[in-house]
Amino acid sequence: MKPTLIVIAGPTASGKTELAIREAENRGATILSCDSLCFYKGMDIGTAKPTREEQARVPHFGIDLVEPDEPYSVNRYLEYRDTVLREAREKGQSVIVVGGSGFYLKSFFSPVVDEIEIPPEVVKRVEAIRREKGLDGLLACLREYNSEEETFDGLDLQNPRRVEKALIRCLGAGKSYGELRSAFLSLPEPLKDWDKQAWLINRPVEILQERNRLRVDRMLKAGLVEEVQQLRERGFERNPSACGAIGYREVLDYLNGNLSREHLAEMIYVHTNQLIRKQRNWFNRQIPVHREITGVT
Fold first, then answer.
1. Does domain 205-278 bear CATH number 3.30.300.30?
2. Global pTM value
3. Nearest CA to 46 among 293, 227, 264?
């Protein structure tokens, strides 16, 4: 009999943490975080990281893995994830995965990375093309490296970041885009030895907005500004993934004098609402939902 792996997905402020803890307690399961910001130590208030009391109720993994100035890649997460799952399986425990980071969540159901290693000089070469010639230069180089018949299925040719990554992989692997795409699509489904279920919390938009407003107010009252000040001392501005996250970047704007205190909460609220809309669309397209939950009680 396969062990159970439940992935609880949902937009920001939807109530993922409370549902995950309740289900883990009922099932005697452990919780594996799949929030790419909860990996960082000290980023507690702005990520709505589970409290010490909540973590004491159920064993939690995937939290406070690295210092805030240290980038954390999906490859490192996959290695960590597989270790956690192997140990849980040996103990006969189910696992509840919870988080809002779509790319990491998708990795439980389909491949998201391959094993191609990119030489640093290739990255520098492509970055130079982007700086000097922009998107047109990247596209010209990509088309030059591929055959005239290449249609670049699945690649947004208007997205400079996507085109840059595609070119880096083609040059680094010495293969065409079509060859790389075919090889990637043939990769096996991950974690087939688990009984996987995806639960999606899909609250009405107006409820999410209301919960978001309360969430922002709580974070500021709990000391989000002071948390960011402490993180600056620990060098988190050297890590774009950390300092560019919603909540943290607005506080940095405030601390740098580019945003008034009166507008701080509103900007976090507005930007979080924009993220919520993107998350709702992404989850419905990318995650194979087995159960939809319209509310958490």
1. no
2. 0.86
3. 227
